[in-house]
Specification:
The structure is a homodimer of 225-residue chains. Chain A is α+β, with helices and mostly antiparallel strands and 225 residues long. Chain A has helices at 4-9, 19-26, 106-115, 117-142, 146-160, 176-183, 187-199, 215-223; strands at 30-34, 39-41, 49-55, 58-63, 69-75, 80-81, 84-85, 88-89, 92-95, 99-105, 169-171, 203-205, 209-212. Chain A has 8 helices and 13 strands. The interface between A and B is medium-sized, with 33 and 34 residues. Chain A binds a DNA duplex (30 and 30 nucleotides) through α7.
DNA sequence: CGGGACATTGAAACGTCTCAAACGATGTGG
DNA sequence: CCACATCGTTTGAGACGTTTCAATGTCCCG
């Protein structure tokens, strides 16, 4: 139980969930079908629930005093979100697409973890995953060139969304602003960087997402960190 | 025991250690006194030891293919470092000042954690701390203005180095290049940003470190994220 | 005392940001 | 069912700030 506390004290970042956990949690979870653009919770709200993404895409972000929007990350199917700092949500969560989410009261969740050390273990691994994600984001944002950041972002989304690691199609339901918020770019810069990638014959974009045309140069670009 | 594995699989980031833990670990640790600039381990080496900083400053960094140096973070007294990914160090660790470090074989460490769940708990908290640090770095690097990044870096070092949170003197033993590597700036930009802070009457710099002159404006600058 | 690493400063190049406008898609109300 | 308002995207031109390249100055250590 002591173990659970720090887990829930962590700020939110990406956290995939195993099938075994989903099964265990389904019995106490409330299933919600949400439309696109629905705000699940707001930064600063008391963190009463923990959420599991059951399908669709959710974005976690915080609005900074300067008016900028810092996107912490995107949550895909089976990802956990809603972790808090000091009992309050660290980010705002909003659906990017229509989505199904499972909602679990934090108290209930703590009880479950107390009774099931194995599940507790799984949660620790989620925190570690989360850490890796934050570090991966650190590396991506460290790049100076916008096209390179976009390419690494596509790579990240491909891994996160559960599309095969050799898939050339990547769905991008989030807005350019959301991508920019994640990559520390303006939406205009995202636009221009995407155009550059297209002009260079590396990636093509349409309404649905991205399509990698030249994988060799794409991989080269990603490796050129 | 299972718990220990993922802990050691995490990449390195900041991790303070409590006195209770230090006592417990002291008996199995090898104490090493290291000169300034000593490379403790290199990125890619087999991760055989876990380290605890017993005094001094250590920098963890990775050299990217582009030749740039990405600084993951600085380790101060009581911080743990040497966590690995897939059995290999994710970063290179080098002393910034003369330092004392305690070295513990990973296998021994795992054994200790297995026998002491309480200590295991503490380690989980370290991972969560590490996560928070990575996120804090994300926010800092997200700023566009170099002086603002420097100010937030000073704030971070003040917190990490264990100087009082209201201290106006901040020791900066690391080089401008190291600071730049952490903040994603060139050493020249660090130099200019520091000069700007001085010209604006906010912070003064000398060989030893920084001295906050105008705390109100300093805090304002930090808040202007 | 000398060599080397680090820090500082300068000037120009580069790339993103900002501001602005036009375009496209979407969803709603008449 | 269409017109319209809205939101997001794209494109443009200029401003801004960091990077780059180069040179000088400073400090530390051998």
């Amino acid at each position: 139980m002591l173990l659970a506390a720090p887990l829930f004290e962590a700020a939110a970042e990406r956290q995939p969930l195993t099938p075994r956990e989903r099964h265990k949690l389904a019995s106490v979870a409330t299933r919600m079908r949400l439309p696109r653009g629905y705000v699940i919770y707001r930064e600063g709200d008391a963190a009463e629930f923990l959420y599991i993404n059951g399908g669709g895409v959710v974005v976690a972000y915080a609005d900074l005093p300067s008016g900028q929007r810092r996107v912490a990350g995107f949550r895909f199917k089976a990802d956990i979100f809603g972790l808090a700092i000091a009992g309050r949500y660290a980010n705002t969560a909003r659906t990017v697409t229509a989505a199904t989410v499972f909602r679990i009261p934090v108290g209930t969740m703590m009880e479950i973890l107390r009774l099931d050390p194995g599940l507790e273990h799984q949660f620790l691994r989620k925190v570690v995953d989360e850490l890796r994600q934050a570090q991966r984001k650190n590396i991506i944002v460290g790049r100076r060139d916008a096209p390179g950041r976009i390419a690494m972002f596509l790579d990240l989304v491909r891994d996160s969304a559960g599309e095969g690691s050799k898939a050339n199609r990547i769905a991008l339901p989030m807005t350019r602003s959301d991508i920019g918020g994640f990559l520390n770019l303006t939406s205009e810069s995202v636009s221009r960087a995407c155009r550059r990638l297209t002009e260079d014959g590396i990636v093509e974009f349409d309404r649905a997402g991205a399509h990698i045309i030249n994988r060799r140069r794409f991989d080269e670009l990603i490796a050129r960190v």
